[in-house]
Amino acid sequence: MKKLTCLGLSVVMALSLLAGCGGGGTSTPSTSTPDASAPSTSQGTDASTPANEEISGAVNTDGSTSMADVMAAFKESFEGLYPDVTINYSGTGSGSGITNALAGTVDIGLSSRALTDEEKAEGAVENIVALDGVAVVVNPENTITNLTVEQIAQIYNGTITNWSELGGADAPIAVIGRDAASGTRGAFEEIVGVEDQCVYTNEYESTGEVIGSVAGNPNAIGYASLSAVDESVVAVEVNGVAPSEATVADGTYEIQRPFVMVTKEGAELSPAAQAFLDWAMSADAADEIEAAGCVSPNA
Amino acid sequence: MSEQSLRNPSAPAGRKGRNGGARPLESVMQMIFFICGFIAIAFVLVITIYLIISGLPAIREIGLVDFLFGQEWASTAEEPKFGILPLILTSVYGTAGAILIGVPIGFLMAVFLSKVAPRRVAAVVRPVVDLLAGIPSIVYGLVGLMVLVPFIRETFHTAAGESLLAAIVVLAVMILPSIISVSETALNAVPKEYEEASLALGATDIETYFRISAPAAKSGIAAAVVLGVGRAIGEAMAIMMVAGNVANMPDLLSSVRFLTTGIAVELAYSSGLQRQALFSIGLVLFLFIMCINVILNVFLKRDKEG
Fold first, then answer.
1. Does the pTM of the predicted model rise above 0.80?
2. CA-CA-CA-CA torsion for A10, A13, A14, A15, nearest 10 degrees?
3. Distance, CA of A263 to CA of A127 (rounded, Å)
4. Looking at residue B39, what is its pLDDT?
5. In a domain, A246, yes or no
6. Which residues of A touch B76 (CB under 8 A)?
7. B272 — alpha (psi -120 to 50), left (phi > 0) or beta?
8. Which of A63, A84, B199, B246 could form an SS bridge with B255, CB 3.0 to 4.6 Å?
9. Are A265 and A250 found together in one domain?
10. Residue A180 included in any domain
11. CB A122: neighbour CB atoms within 10 A?
12. Are residues A219 and A143 in the same domain?
């Protein structure tokens, strides 16, 4: 009985190997065209179940630590759809994710910022899988509920130091932020345009501590991933737009960043990696993206 | 085999049999002791070597003077700066402040427990002090964050209460138990005759405690202070919650970053030279603690001789 199972399994594996090779041979180099052997998930997942087993292997991804939640949700669902595929993720930072994708040491690089023109010139292809809004939060006691990006920048670079300058109470502003290595801090400072100019009152090593600190201090202003904001703090409107999934998706909320899967132009992905990328870019992954607290641009 | 030799020695009452049976066990146990002792030394050695190996490259790249005396820490800036003088000074000031507050209170408490308090009161207070030593540091941080930080913010009208002052107060409370218990042990060890002689010459109780007992126990009390310094300088969790963690030059009411919190705050997402520099901070901290341990040993040795 055991022998039979073993035999059966090895036959299946051998077949899937062949199928994988065949798929690889016929696929086009362009990353945006779905692989011939990859099941097109938009045509209904129930019909493609047998085809799912034809794809196997490991997909190595590497990069942005901010994408850990999204990748965990992706991994769980995708490995459910494709039982023979393993998704590996290691959080090393956006920069190293892009570098590794260009060097070909990983299948897919992960970046929590848009690619620069320089990186695109080197052959990096930007596949935006999700959008992450960074909310600016204040204490519920604070009367200020609307700030412009300009005002936020002035608060963070130390030009504005008292809430009364913004029409609020006469109290000093406590500027709360993340530690220097944080992806959220990097994204926030870049979008608001205060890189390396921030004058922080307090720095914390986690989003939870930022929220906690703002919740406990009426003078405080902080920033956090949109998904991490709870009712203990108030997310202010930026340029009159309240942060929400809808305003992030349509682009009217300005403080947002893309989650990017980076591939190298002209380099051929393994069938498993191609299938994973196609799935992540499709509307099917929207639930997972939402579960991870982000907004899907493809929904 | 070892089980047999364990049982054998107790079975025969005769001296001969006992010695004969115990010998293999003796050497086995000796080996076990040796190995255990060696493990402790090995850990110290491995940690030391590891810290030196991983801490030196960044110092070499940044330059020792720029690293130790640079006034700006901006590890991820376009042009990163890795000066840890603010961190070193914060650690030194913070520890000094904690000692300044903690030692007088701790010493007087020890005198109270050792000499003044009625036996019953001391029997209640002592376990409470021990309990204070057992409270996890994060709980100190939490209480500091919920009580002390808002208090400082409202009293001094600062933007945020997280400050060097808050850290000093939290550290002072945290070092109290070790100062109290070590000082008390030293005071208890003062020979009764000294105090009795003093009292017989007409000195009051209080005069005797401060003029006779305390000087006689001074090296033990000094050891308590050094122990407190060691605990204060190595603490990270509690002060990370109340110090604000911005690498400013230390000021009593501003947010500051200690050597310990400097590592803890940035380690998780750090990479490259930044991560190496964090190890270098660890090396500096390690050297600080080594110095403190050497000083402690000197005091303890003198105590034994005295």
1. no
2. 120
3. 8
4. 93
5. yes
6. 180-181, 186
7. left
8. B246
9. no
10. yes
11. 14
12. yes
**Tokens 């870049």 sit on residue:** A190
Residues 254-273 of A with CB under 8 A from B: none
Question: Which residues of chain A does B74 touch, with a Cβ-Cβ cutoff of 8 Å?
Answer: 180, 196
Other C-beta atoms within 10 Å of B38: how many? 11
Task: Give the highest mean pLDDT range of A8-17, A257-266, B162-171.
Answer: B162-171
Using the structure block, give the residue that is written with the tokens 């030394």.
B41
Query: Are B265 and A204 a contacting pair at CB < 8 A?
Result: yes
pLDDT of residue B1: 42
Report the alpha-carbon distance of residue A275 to residue A259 in Å, rounded. Answer: 18
Helix, strand, coil % in chain A, rounded to nearest 5? 40, 20, 35
Residue A250 touches chain B, beta carbons under 8 Å: no
Q: Residue B291 CA to chain centroid, in angstroms? A: 12
Residue A69 sits in the same domain as residue A146 = no
Secondary structure (3-state) at A231: coil
Instruction: Say whether both A239 and A148 belong to one domain.
Output: yes
Whether residues A59 and A99 share a domain: the answer is yes
3-state secondary structure B159-215: CCCCCHHHHHHHHHHHHHHHHHHHHHHHHHCCCHHHHHHHHHCCCCHHHHHHHHHHH
Q: How confident is the model at residue A93 (pLDDT cuts 50, 70, 90)?
A: confident
**Helix axes B164-188 and B218-234, enclosed angle (nearest 10):** 150
The per-residue pLDDT for A36 is: 41
**Judgement on whether residues A212 and A202 belong to the same structural domain of the protein:** yes
Q: Report whether B24 contacts B5 (CB < 8 A).
A: yes
**What is the distance between the alpha carbons of residues B281 and B264, in angstroms, rounded to a whole number?**
11
CB atoms within 10 A of CB B306: 10
Q: Within an 8 Å CB–CB cutoff, is residue B11 touching chain A?
A: no
Query: Which tokens belong to B211?
Result: 């003029």
Q: Look at A66-75, A271-280, B163-172, B208-217 and tell me which has the smallest mean pLDDT.
A: A66-75
Structural domain count of chain A: 2
Rg (CA), chain B: 25
Question: What residues of B are in contact with residue A187 (Cβ under 8 Å)?
Answer: none
- pLDDT classification of B21: cutoffs 50, 70, 90: low
Q: Nearest CA to CA, how far is A93 from chain B (Å)? A: 7
**Sequence-separated (6 or more) residues with CB below 8 Å from residue B298:** none
**Could you list the residue range(s) of the whole structural domain that residue A88 is in?**
53-130+258-291
Of A92, A183, A220, the CB nearest to B160: A220
Spatial CB neighbours of A197, under 8 Å, sequence gap ≥ 6: A156, A157, A158
- Say whether residue B14 is in contact with chain A using an 8 A CB cutoff: no
